[in-house]
Amino acid sequence: MRRFLLLYATQRGQAKAIAEEISEKAVTYGFSADLYCISESDKYDLKTETAPLVMVVSTTGNGDPPDTARKFVKAIQDKTLPPDFLAHLRYGLLGLGDSEYTYFCNGGKVIDKRLQELGAQRFYNTGHADDCVGLELVVEPWINGLWAALEKHFLLNRGREDTSETLTMASHASQRTDPLKPELLHVESQVGLLRLDDSRGKAAEVLEQNAVNSSQSSTLIADFEASLTCSVPPLSQASLNIPALPLEYLEVHLEEALGQEESHASVSSVDPVFHVPISKAVQLTTNDAIKTTLLIELDVSKTDFSYQPGDAFNVICPNSDSEVQFLLQRLQLADRREHRVAVMIKADTRKKGAALPEHVPERCSLHFLLTWCLEIRAVPKKAFLRALADHTGDSAERRRLQELCSRQGAADYARFVRDAGACLSDLLRAFPSCQPPLGLLLEHLPKLQPRPYSCASSSLFHPGKLHFIFNIVEFLSNTTEVVLRRGVCTGWLATLVESILQPYTCANHADGKKALAPKISISPRTTNSFHLPNDPSVPIIMVGPGAGVAPFIGFLQHREKLQERHPGGRFGATWLFFGCRHKERDYLFRDELRHFLKCGVLTHLEVSFSRDAAVGEEEGPAKYVQDSLQHHSKQVAGVLLQESGYIYVCGDAKNMAKDVHDALVEIISRETGVEKLEAMKTLATLKEEKRYLQDIW
Ligand SMILES: Cc1cc2nc3c(=O)[nH]c(=O)nc-3n(C[C@H](O)[C@H](O)[C@H](O)COP(=O)(O)OP(=O)(O)OC[C@H]3O[C@@H](n4cnc5c(N)ncnc54)[C@H](O)[C@@H]3O)c2cc1C
Ligand SMILES: Cc1cc2nc3c(=O)[nH]c(=O)nc-3n(C[C@H](O)[C@H](O)[C@H](O)COP(=O)(O)O)c2cc1C
Fold first, then answer.
1. Ligand 2 centroid to residue 98 C-alpha, Å
2. Which of 583, 579, 588 is nearest to 507 (CA)?
3. What DSSP assignment string belongs to 296-359?
4. Any idea of the CA torsion for 566, 567, 572, 578, to the nearest 10 degrees?
5. pLDDT grade for 268, boundaries at 50, 70 and 90
6. Which residues belong to any copy of the FAD-binding FR-type domain (predicted)?
7. 663 C-alpha to ligand 1 centroid (Å)
8. What atom of ligand 2 comes closest to residue 64's alpha carbon?
9. Looking at the CA of 14, which ligand is closest?
10. pLDDT band, very low/low/confident/very high, at 175 (cuts 50, 70, 90)
11. Average pLDDT of the residues of the chain
12. What are phi and psi of 596, to 5 degrees?
């Protein structure tokens, strides 16, 4: 069999799942993949690798490669490596990302670029899959095209060293598909991480395409009422290309409980887990605000948990009890909810490298497994639909599930499953005769991820306490029936603190309702560089609309204590650009900010209200933080370019961070009289120097 090396670099498992799919399909095409996580560096050696390399690499943080790839990236970035170090290597790379982030697919791009610099050559075009519009739009054609590229590679290399034909093909092809405009290529190498490719435009194009498709199909809906459960011609009459049935590999037994209770600490986590009481909960917004923002205070005094303002931490959260109950009922396992789940690899499985899922703790109860370990809200992938089809008794329902995972049904999958945010429960509701075994859920549902939150306090100001704030996520789901759903974590937290919740107006005067103090589990996150400058005389600009203000409250509390301790000390200017919808409804921390302003900890407070017509005392005509920055163009440029100041941006990654980025480019360009590209380079330098810091989600 023709062998290739298949490496994946994943943060949350998607790259791994895609690599596994490639590995499974390879056999059908007469190839065999040696599949490894990129961190398993003892299992492969690129220096001596003669087989082609296929990589699937996601992006995390702010354009960073996944944690599992850190060692790899560090190793290939060794400046002492000669430019022909990997000249023998032929590779194909699939990057995963989300074009809503500034540095689209940057994890993959960094590796791709460095492999090229070390002489490695592509045997197949790089793909950049976008989670924002659906990874499968790129992943599926990329995988489909991989086999021909491998075929050609092996053909050309049969019995000879010369691969020039392949290389010509690859480099032509890469020119065709590389999103970078050729004239900008040289700039990219200088600008480094800066976003120059128009990934946003590309995403918009795909979205537009989708919009066209969906407007076409909405005509169809009006005529024929296509839905999650029902297809219309031509799909309903088409012969289907459906994916191969994923190989089942887990065997699950349920055993009578022995009576031990598992703790949340048994939820798999590499970091230490702290079980801490909630000591206070405050509603920061009024009841008529569009979004509800809550503050939770945790008592960490009896733990070793420590943090600096600017850090974030993880909240370990469960799935909603009613959703878990529904699944138990639907799987006909309600009476066995306390049974222990024993999982093992099927003795006769044909799945290569089958391994027990790391996120399933040993012998936990069924109820615990569904509540704390599996992301039951995850949008089912096509492979899952394919597997579900084989456990569906009714032939019409089975056909519809097959359609949804078929090549011909791609648009319906995008519309009724992915874009609708359908989850397993929605499918089980929609397809009543579908009765999957528990093992299938373990094979296909990803790990329930803890949710990160930024610390919104300083331990100097609130010793032994940790504050964080969040918007309660709410959205309408209408896959089978229209229901209001809440985010997994924020919905759970909101319910948990209901009985102790205080309105903002009373919160600073009372010491928290002492009713009951529910406990939650948290874990620290590896430290980042989103911290105050070591030198307090350096001026800082903080940009944090909405819940993005969280870390800056911590910064300002910290500064207040430092200023109290060092009354004669030199403290630089502190600017805060805050934004919300309405002054009277969601102006978070209004009293605290006024206090910081009054005592001089905050030297400039600029607040923009996007939905208020009236102009009040603190706000200018700016609608959004980026407008407000533009209004202070001179001062902003002065702080960053003359006074060696810092700029911090926190909050919404989807729009705000990009708009702020663009505003900064304009400001630098205007104030220094340089072209936009030059301004982008200046901003990239600030980023490299860690003076332009983002904490965006
Ligand atoms: C480093 C970091 C720091 C962060 N700090 C903060 C912070 O300080 N404050 C804060 O509020 N958040 C913060 N976040 C975001 C936070 O971690 C969570 O992502 C957020 O609170 C939502 O979690 P959830 O479980 O309630 O929502 P989830 O259940 O995970 O839902 C996530 C999103 O998907 C959407 N969604 C899900 N299903 C559907 C569907 N069927 N239809 C339509 N939409 C759907 C929801 O609208 C929601 O936006 C941070 C994130 C990171 C990475
Ligand atoms: C916290 C977080 C940060 C992310 N940062 C980026 C980013 O900077 N650039 C990007 O293109 N995609 C980013 N993404 C999107 C992921 O790369 C994308 O969803 C990918 O499919 C995840 O694959 P994985 O599960 O293998 O890690 C981010 C996703 C998360 C959850």
1. 6
2. 588
3. EEEE-TTS-----TT-EEEEE-PPPHHHHHHHHHHTT-GGGTTSEEEEEE-TT---TT----TT
4. 100
5. low
6. 271-533
7. 26
8. 8
9. 2
10. very low
11. 87
12. -60, -35
Nearest residue (CA) to ligand 1, atom 13: 453
Pocket of ligand 2 from Cβ distances under 6 Å = 10-15, 58-63, 66, 96-98, 101, 103-106, 131, 135
Q: Whose CA is nearest to atom 1 of ligand 2?
A: 61
Q: What is the pLDDT of residue 211?
A: 36
How confident is the model at residue 352, as a pLDDT?
A: 78
Q: Does the pLDDT value for residue 176 go beyond 80?
A: no
Say which ligand is closest to the CA of 313. Answer: 1
Distance CA 401, CA 430 (A): 10
For the residues of 151-162, what is the DSSP string, one character each? HHHHHHHTT-S-
Q: Give this prediction's pTM.
A: 0.81
pLDDT-based confidence at 169, cuts 50/70/90?
very low
Specify which residues 485 forms β-bridges with: 475
The pLDDT tens digits of the residues spanning 568-591 come to: 999 999 999 999 999 999 999 999
Q: CA-CA distance, 178 to 200, in Å (whole number)?
A: 15
**Tens digit of each residue's pLDDT (9 = 90 or more) over 390-408:** 999 999 999 999 999 999 9
Pocket test for ligand 2, best of 58, 130, 418, 661 (most atoms within 8 A of CB): 58
Question: Residues with beta carbon inside 6 Å of ligand 1?
Answer: 312, 377, 421, 451-454, 468-471, 473, 475, 477, 487-491, 547, 550, 695, 697
CA of 476 to the centre of ligand 2 (A): 24
Rounded distance from Cα 252 to ligand 1 centre (Å): 32
Separation of CA 306 and ligand 1 centre (Å): 24
On whether the CB atoms of residues 68 and 38 are closer than 8 A, the answer is yes
CB 199 within 8 Å of CB 99: yes
> Which atom of ligand 1 lies nearest, measured to the CA of 550?
8
What DSSP element (H or E) covers 57? strand 53-57
**CA 453 / ligand 1 centre spacing (Å):** 10
Q: How far apart are the first and last CA of the chain?
A: 44
Nearest ligand 2 atom, CA 61: 3
**b/e sequence 149-165, b meaning 16+ C-beta within 10 Å:** bbebbbebbeeeeebee
Q: Closest Cα to residue 97, out of 109, 87, 83, 85?
A: 109
Residue 523 three-state SS? strand
Question: Which alpha helices (H) appear in 527-589, and where do they start and end?
Answer: 550-565
Q: Which strands form 604-609's sheet, in the order they lie side by side?
A: 604-609, 574-580, 540-543, 646-651, 692-696
Region 655-665: mean pLDDT is 94
Q: What is the DSSP letter of 420?
A: T
Residue 127 to residues 46, 54, 111, 137, 522, Cα–Cα distance (Å): 21, 11, 13, 11, 37
Residue range 463-484: average pLDDT? 92
- Nearest-atom number in ligand 2 for the CA of 199 is 11
Judged against a pLDDT cut of 90, whether residue 45 lies above it is answered with yes
Between the alpha carbon of residue 435 and those of residues 37, 255, 432, the distances in Å are 33, 21, 8
Average pLDDT over residues 444-455: 95
What mean pLDDT is predicted for residues 473-490? Answer: 90
Q: Residue 233, preceding bond cis, omega within 30 degrees?
A: no
Write the residue with the smallest CA distance to atom 10 of ligand 2.
Answer: 97
Q: Which ligand is nearest to the CA of 65?
A: 2
Which of the four pLDDT bands, split at 50, 70 and 90, describes residue 650? very high
Interval between CA 128 and ligand 2 midpoint (Å): 12
